[in-house]
Amino acid sequence: MHKRQFPLPLVLITAVAALALPQTGVLARAPATGSVATPREDARADAWARATLARMSLEDKIALLHGRFLALVAPAQRPAGITVGAGYVAGNGGLGIPPQVATDASLGVSNLMDMRKGDVATVLPSGMAMAATWNPSLVREAGRMIGSQARAKGFNVMLAGGVNLVRDPRAGRNFEYLGEDPLLAGTLVAAQIEGIQSNAIIATIKHFALNNQETGRANASVELAETAMRESDLLAFQLGIEGGSPGAVMCAYNKIGGSYACENRFLLTDVLRRDWGYRGFVMSDWGAVHSTEALLAGLDQQQGEQLDKKRWLSTELLAGVKAGALPVAAVDTAARRVLRTMFVHGLVARALATGPIDYQRDGAVSLRTAEEAIVLLKNEGDMLPFPATVKRIVVVGGHADIGVPAGGGSSQVTPVGGFAKVETVKDGAAAGFARKVWGGTPPLDALRRAFPTADVRFFDGSDPDAAAAAASNADVAVVFAEKFSTEAMDQPDLSLDGRQDALIDAVASANPRTVVVLETGNAVAMPWLAKTPAVVAAWYSGQRGGDAIAGVLAGSVNPSGRLPVTFPASTQQLPNPQLPGSGLPPPSKEDRATYGVNTNSPPFTIRYPEGADVGYRWFDRTAAAPLFAFGHGLSYASFRYDGLRVSGGRTATVAFRVTNTGSRTGADVPQVYATLPGKPRRLIGWSKPVLAPGESKLVRITADRRLLGTFDSTAHRWRIAHGPVGIEVARSATAPVLTGSAIIAEGTIKP
Ligand code: BGC
User: Helix, strand, coil proportions of the chain in percent (round to 5)?
Assistant: First the structure.
């Protein structure tokens, strides 16, 4: 059944026009290629794993189930010829099993604390930035690039694939992740994993699951109904696993329903293995294992074992099996999973080796990603791009003279060219671990190149009066505004660091032609918004960040990023106006002894009042107006949507035409949202057509049926009710342009 939304003639006209139009996008789901094993490869992997296992002693098998953080091993004791990274699992030459050598993470090959003296790598823009591209092929290419660098540096496991949903804009690691929507994040992580794994390297989707904030990451317990989990965080993982086939899943630090993620039978066995049929292996996060019994719940490999209280999956396991307390069969199962995964992903066939890296070429991948990630949030009176004739530009703040900022923690990459500046974090939960860094191409240099005849002056912002005075005499002013984000620590509020709000206010008051470039890992508040005609979200923009930003300001790049998160107007609008656990005292000695090295608070419970209605869906449900909506982003072109056709039945299929009505070539991101009766709207698809002025393309989107249903935890299935579903073709979660509806047939889908 399908319901018509407009008189027949228009349908016909559109249908005829559609035949002549190039088609684009379809739903941005990653095709299962490259990293996904065919049944034949699967069978070969199983046979090899079985035969190899038959030749192994108990000790040999257990050797595959635990890894060391090599940086913590004295250099003299390190295995020869192995690149030092986050993880090392010994191989077995006699049996043809190579070592597993692991590096972080999703933004490039990290080199935390300079563990490989002076080693650099191409830095991608942050995960949040990659999500803002809404472009799976670009994210796949970015993944391919960092995976190839990891391989060339001697790694064969990459701890990349972070897909925890952004539930709170104060969470410290959001910059590593892919936004607040399970379809967007799941689709993009699948693409990233595919790209990485095209290099015969294992990617690791993480942190499974519900590790959505840093406060309490070692010991907070998330209480969330199964239905809500399945429709939100778990769905992002499910889509990522289906589309990307990651070799490994990393279980998280936190607890879910009172049980640690790394010994959570519901997550690791019931959901992952039974329901999703996952065939890779589960590795722990570094310092996340608390028992040998974790093996029985579904953990296969204890990584970073020196960070845990005991060598749970080595000496403890061996003793347990020998004493008859743990079955050999459990060891066999885990070892078989590790072995077959190494075979499937090419680790057995392709030996570890180092090789040359073309940093020039790889930098161009980072640049393209940064360009597509930039979101033009506001552009009153076409303030941007600056005309080529602009004579005097004042650039203020954000260390724009030396580089772009990056997030802190295990994902931090030392850029090609090294850091321009490093500050240690002295206070708070990340002190001693995280570093504040700047690097990549400086925006100031890039602006000078983009405007060769202009007088471009820089003020570091430490003296707001001086910056404002200079701005008052300039044609335009650009303020770079930063906010540091890091693993291990959340943020107290939505404000920019230090006194930057006052600085922006002063400059914008002195010159109404002031543009703000936000370099943040999260949504931020903008108390000065009414005073500035243009605002650009550039995130942490990576290796070539300055070039990308200058390109947007000068107009050689037409911005096409869209927000992957909601920018709230205030924390009062959030499901938890106060960040869970934020009011607690520091952890006691006993807390640290109980919960381990990552303990940063006493234990507490995290509740998510929004349930599955994360981000924009919560704003929809509570009728709250955000500062900037999920999906929002402007262009220097303009786009018309028309010719909507919606059909129902088994699922919703939505087709419409996008036309560039502007005078510049640009990419648009039309989004399709569905509304089930009584539920907030949700994203069911999007496309990113590139259109020349006057050009039209037909977009066709077919919804994943699970997005049109609800998860019935009693029946243990997705359930789709018969009835109408509202459909919107929109510019953002709050800006529908075309509306229609479809009658969807009743049905159920396996979990
Ligand atoms: C992080 C992981 C990372 C691991 C290894 C942990 O602190 O949570 O994301 O992969 O360290 O560095």
Answer: 30, 20, 45
- Nearest alpha carbon, ligand 1 atom 6: 286
Answer whether 674's CB lies under 8 Å from 699's CB.
Answer: no
Atom of ligand 1 nearest to the CA of 104: 10
- Determine whether the shortest distance from the Cβ of 234 to ligand 1 is under 6 A: no
Q: How far apart are CA 524 and CA 532, in angstroms?
A: 15
pLDDT digits (tens, 9 = 90+) for 717-731: 999 999 999 999 999
pTM: 0.95
Q: Is 391 left (phi over 0), alpha (psi -120 to 50) or beta?
A: alpha
The burial class, CB within 10 Å (0-12 / 13-18 / 19+), for 362 is buried
Under 8 Å between Cβ of 597 and 539 = no
Angle (CA) 477-478-481 rounded to 5° is 140
Ramachandran area for residue 171 (φ above 0: left; ψ -120 to 50: alpha; else beta): beta
The answer, yes or no, to whether any atom of ligand 1 lies below 6 A from the CB of 159, is: yes
Helix (H, G, I), strand (E, B) or coil at 60: helix
Q: Per the structure block, which two tokens stand in for 662?
A: 């502007």
H/E run at residue 50:
helix 39-54
| Residue 224: half-sphere exposure toward Cβ, Cα within 13 Å | 29
Q: In 408-452, at which residue ranges do the beta strands (DSSP E only) sit?
A: 421-424, 435-439
Predicted confidence (pLDDT) per residue in 181-202, tens digit: 999 999 999 999 999 999 999 9
